[in-house]
Amino acid sequence: MTTTPVSATLESGVPVSIVIVSRDRPEALRRCLTGVGQLQYAPFEVIVVADPAGIAVARDMVFAEALKLVTYDRPNISAARNLGIAEAAGEVVAFIDDDAVPEPLWLRHLLEPAQRPGVAAMTGFVRGRNGISFQYRARQLNALGEPENLDVDPETPSILHPPPGGAIKTEGTNMAFRRDVLVEVGGFDPAFHYYLDETDLNMRLARAGHATAIVPLAEVHHGFAANAMRSANRVPRDLFDIGASWAVFHRKHLASQDRAAQWAYLRAAERRRLLRHLISGGLEPSDVPRLLRRLDEGHAEGLKRPIVSTTVPRTTNSPFRPFPARPRRSVAIFTRPIKLARDRAKAAKWAQAGEIVTLISLSPTALYHRVAFDPTHAIWLQTGGIYGKSARDDAVFRLRRRCDRLKREVKRVARQRGFSDDRSR
What we know:
It contains 12 helices and 17 strands. The protein is of the alpha/beta class. It folds into 3 domains: 11-222, Alpha-Beta Complex (Spore Coat Polysaccharide Biosynthesis Protein SpsA, Chain A), CATH 3.90.550; 240-302, no CATH class; 330-417, no CATH class. It is globular, with a radius of gyration of 22 Å. The chain starts with 10 loop residues before the first strand and ends in an 8-residue tail after the last helix.
């Protein structure tokens, strides 16, 4: 069974430049770019700032000629993002990580508040690696730079002004800023090589009096791919840059008399986190003192790291290069595990023909649901049980008819993926 799709149309809005920074993760970048290729918005351009392996992947994409490519092979995400901003010719600059995939209507929702007075930044919700749970929703930063959860309307944008001394948090893998505001505040601070880079920018935006829009339906799926700092299951490998970034942040945003106590608090929190990983088997006993030593070494280096005023060019280095987005219909194919291989091949053919395809395979069980974007076939795959959970507030087991459950799952993501959720055949 398949859903009847909505008529395919591209949403037109302000010109957007998407910046993707990638290093040491070429296959993650390929997956991200494949998902970006299905975005239903115009006009936008794509800027890839990557190491040679990432640039090679970008040049291998079918739309390679439409990409702006910048080679950069140093471990400094802030400097890399600034290079992307320098090439960005859009009115708004959006950022997504290389280990993330956007929902097809991501830009439609994210950019909806862009023309509202005073809105300088926009951010959306982030789903975790199971494609169901949220890693991040709405958050603000207190005066110490620590995130705190916010309650917002789950379907409509909220225009928020910063709390006293704090800021509204944008999520690094799902955020956008007016380019003229990035020029005004100097872009990202390269003193933050990794970690707290957007937190610092959020604090500077708040001090300049700018508002931020939190847009729940602007969703990306974030995988937390492995890097030099963490393994694929988020076990720390090195804490040097975390220590360094906290030292820089405290120097920029905390009164001198408050820094030592706050660092002691954060260091103790990191130690507790390492002990949890030790207990769960992710770390060996010798790893804990080694990682704490690297944390301290990073903090000491961050106390000496130069902090200079940064600038990004007011005029872009290159003209706007529109991505060849095309209207795509979004359809769902319903199947069972026994027929999954056959229907996956069918779904791949539909995707190749230009559809946005979701393949939903449900077994007669209470298995929890999972959603993943399959870059090989360019399809969204959802698996789980007819009676299982697909939302945090679901019951562990709920008796449902198969057809009712399938309709419910389509409706759950209809506005993010572009389904018609009220007709089927």
